[in-house]
Structures are given as C-alpha cells and as structure tokens.
Design a protein that fits this description.
single chain; 506 residues; mainly alpha; Fumarase C, Chain B, domain 1; Fumarase C, Chain A, domain 2; 3-stranded antiparallel sheet; two-stranded parallel ribbon; 9 strands; cytoplasm; histidine ammonia-lyase activity
C-alpha cells in the first residue's frame, strides 16, 4: 500500500503503482490540512470576500464577481467548457499516473477542496477506473487545463473511462464498482484542473521507460562489441576517471562487467588500434544521457510533490494568494532535455547497426545475410533504424522555446510542456525499436562469431533473446521480429542494470 501525504511520493512508489497495481491511501495528518483549507474556502464564500477562482470568473474573466448561490454552477461550467481536448487519448498508464498525482497535490492542503474529492480520486485508481483523456490541447500554463478537465469530468459522472480493458461511460464503470459521482463546490473545479499533472504524468512514464532503455542500450551495445570484435581498453577505468564524470565511469564499469569473460572482444593492437566512435565513445555518450536522466528525475520528483494550482491557501485561510505555480516551464525544459538525451541513444545505436551490416566496415557476411545477394538479410532493418532516428530529430525540437498568448493576452507566456512530454514518450518508443534492431543484428553477428565465445552476461541475453527472435537462416518478414524484440524489451521483467548481470548469467 502506498500512503500519500503530498510531500514524499517517490519514483519507487510510482513504479509499484503503475506497473504492479499497488493500492493507494492517504495519511490522516495530510487530510487534516485538507480540511482546514476547505474551511477557509467555505468562510470566504459565506462572508462573500472576493477571491479569484472561488467567487470570480477565470482567466480574463477574473474581474467578474459570482454570487455565492452560483459558485457550484461556476465550477460545473468550468469543467465542461474547458474539456476541449482532442486527438488520441493518453495511454491508460499515463491517465492512471495523472489521477494519482492530482490527488497527491491536493493532499498538500493548499487547494481548498473537500476531503471527498481526494477520496474519490483514489477510489478511481484503486478500482482501476482510468479517465479517457485526449492528448492534445494543453499549453502547459494555467496548467494542463484541457486534459485535467477531462479527468474532472469523470468525477462528476460525465466523460469516459478505461475499465477492465474496455472504454465506457464513467457512470457505467462507477455502477460496477459502487462508486458515486460528486458535485463540485466552490474552488474544487479549478483546484482539479489548474496543475501540471498531465505533463508530469507523461514525463514520469517516459522517464521510467527511458531509464530502462538506457540500461538495455548498455547490454545490447556490449553484444555489438563482441560481434565487431571491439577493443575493451577504451572502457578502462583510468580513462573514465581522468575525465571525472560519475555517469561515464558507471557506464564503462557495467560494460566491463558484461564483457569480463568474453573471448570475442579484443585488446588494443590485437586486431586494430582503435574502434570507431560509436564503439569507443559509448561511456562518454551514454554517460551524458545518464546525466540528463538524473536531472530529469530530480525535477519530476519535485513536481510529483508540488502544489501547482492557483490560488493557494495559507495560514488557515488568512493568506489566499494568486501566483503562477501552474506554469510548466521546469517540466517543459526537463522533457526537452529528456527527448534530446534519449534520441542520442538511438543516434549512436543506429551507427553501431551500420557497422554491423556494412561489409566495408567489418569482416562479417554483408548485411549479415545467410546468402548475400540472393537474400538481403538485415539491409532494410538499418533503413528502419535510420528512419526512426530521423523522426526522433524532429520530435526532439524543443517545445519549450515556443509560446502563444491565450485568454485575451492575460496568459501571455506558456510552457508547451505537455507537448514536450508527449514527444519525449514517442522518442523513447522509437529508441526502443532502434535498440531492438541493434539487438537482432548484434545477436546475429555474435552468433556467427561463435556463441560459445561470448561472455556469460551477453550469452544470457542472447539465449533469452533467441526465444523471441530466432537466428536468421533465411529472409523473412523482419517487421515481426523488430516488434517482438521491442515488446520484449518493454516488458517490466527485462531490466538490465547492475543487479541484472547475475540474472543474465544464470
């Protein structure tokens, strides 16, 4: 059971929640803070004080006063009018993350919602009821208004959900689980939608998958080193320490561990003096990606526990302040950085694929073909990798450098962070496919060299991988192989890090 308090949600807990369907609850102390902030809102409504979002309009309408008899209608109208999302829905796992993150933010006690709102959000994820939320339509400041409005629609019994593998109306899913919709009261609609949880949820899922891809890139590139009879001296610890980047040192250490007992890798001068950069510079390039991943993780962990709505309630209601915590710029920049860093894993992987298949760059059969000329072998697999890499370059254009004013120029600078997060997620998926192609080619090359000469760790990967993609004895429809390998890499039980070395050898 994961217990939320608005302050301490971790990536480890998010991993359990997203991939192991861990249930969620809340601390009593955090709910006491929620209750206090709610009492402050009710006092403001009763005394008819003018406070943005409680008894005023929104955005450019912030100067329009709303009577206390209309505050519930104000919130309902807000949710319905702002539910303008378009396009394909976010993956269900992202929707699940979004609901949890919104609940965690409200548990900080700065938002003025009733406890029942948070309890209902947690009811949804514990019952595996996930809102259908269109991906397009957020500017990433005033928060993720459109996506989160679709989330809020579900709470009031409108909108659609994913439930037990089916897409249906929220009311139908509620009836199956004994969950009841709620009526939003003063400030609650605004508190639900004025936040960065769409970009953060997408970012969390993208990061978790990117981390796995980065580890997998190391074991796969180690097999490539064997297939190309690469030189391991370039991974010597002294070289890495001489530069001083911790992540570079760690990448080289893991690759040395993978290749420790290999009879296919070579030493400096044995076959050649130096390898190409795509082999020799793996610690430097992959290590720099890890530096970016560490930065992204740090920003996401802060945002996972952040109050991002407006206004915020402090000092038991004595201070109600309008600010800009809904602005997604910190996550927008992090997502652009994630996109660039992961795209580079694909860039260098594609160059290794080229070295595996190009007969001018190795002494292997041309394109790893069983019968060169009659059979094309891996020729077009490299084309696919090149296409995916080029597509990544367009997705990696930073979304955060763009801004378009909205709400009659009241909201005159926005982050576009949700676009950045969506692009990062797509880049991770593309990069996994590039690595799947490298895995297929490197396994073929290493096995041509002699499976019995491989290191224990890399041979362990190959033996498992051969259950997914067989040795290429003749041309076949390689699209299926690429997708099967990619899906295998995506699965949660295939996670190659330091702890995974023993498993690979087993």
């Amino acid at each position: 059971m994961i217990t939320l308090d608005g302050q301490s949600l971790t990536f480890s807990e998010m991993h359990k929640f997203l991939f192991e369907s861990e249930k969620v609850s809340f601390t009593e102390e955090s709910m006491k803070l929620v209750q206090k902030s709610r009492e402050a809102v009710e006092k403001i409504v009763a005394e008819e004080k003018v406070v943005y979002g409680i008894n005023t309009g929104f955005g450019k309408f912030s100067d329009v006063l709303i009577g206390k008899e209309d505050v519930e209608e104000l919130q309902l109208n807000l949710i319905r009018s702002h539910a303008c999302g378009v396009g394909e829905p976010f993956p269900e796992i992202v929707s699940r993350a979004m609901v949890l993150l919104r609940a965690n933010a409200l548990l900080k006690g700065f938002s003025g919602v009733r406890p029942v709102v948070i309890k209902r959000l947690l009811d949804l994820v514990n019952a595996q009821i996930h809102p259908v939320i269109p991906q397009q339509g957020s500017l990433g400041a005033s928060g993720d208004l459109a996506p989160l409005s679709h989330l809020a629609l579900v709470l009031i019994g409108e909108g659609e959900v994913f439930y037990k593998g089916k897409r249906m109306s929220s009311i139908d899913a509620f009836s199956k689980e004994g969950v009841f919709p709620i009526t939003l009261t003063a400030k609650e609609g605004l508190a639900l939608i004025n936040g960065t949880q769409a970009m953060t949820a997408m970012g969390v899922v993208a990061y978790l998958e990117a981390e796995k891809v980065a580890y997998q890139a190391e074991i796969i590139s180690s097999i490539t080193i064997e297939g190309l009879r690469g030189i391991t001296d370039a991974f010597d610890e002294d070289i890495q320490l001489a530069r001083g980047y911790k992540e570079q040192v760690e990448v080289a250490e893991r690759i040395r561990s993978y290749l420790n007992d290999s009879y296919l890798s070579t030493k400096q001068g044995e076959l050649r003096v130096q390898d190409a950069y795509s082999i020799r510079c793996i610690p430097q390039v992959h290590g720099a990606t890890w530096q970016a991943l560490n930065y992204v993780k740090e920003k996401l962990e802060i945002e996972m526990n952040a109050a991002t709505d407006n206004p915020l309630i402090f000092d038991d209601g004595e201070k109600v302040l309008s600010g800009g915590n809904f602005h997604g710029q910190p996550i927008a920049l992090a997502m652009d950085f994630l996109s660039i860093a992961v795209a580079e894993l694909a860039n260098i992987s594609e160059r290794r694929i080229e070295r595996l298949v190009n007969p001018q760059l190795n002494d292997l059969p041309p394109f790893l073909s069983p019968k060169p000329g009659l059979q094309s072998g891996a020729m077009i697999m490299q084309y696919v990798a090149a296409s995916l890499v080029s597509e990544n370059k367009t997705f990696a254009h930073p979304a955060s450098v763009d801004s378009i004013p909205s709400s009659a120029n009241q909201e005159d600078h926005v982050s576009m962070g949700t676009i950045g997060a969506r692009h990062a997620y797509q880049i991770v998926a593309n990069t996994r496919r590039v690595l799947a192609i490298e895995a297929i080619c490197s396994m073929q090359a290493a096995e041509i060299r002699g499976k019995e000469k491989m290191a224990a760790a890399t041979r362990g990967f190959l033996e498992k991988g051969r259950k997914i993609v067989p040795f290429i004895h003749s041309d076949r429809v390689f699209s299926k192989d690429i997708e099967n390998m990619s899906e295998w890499l995506r699965k949660e039980d295939i996670f190659f890090d330091k702890k995974g070395i023993t498993e690979l050898q087993a």
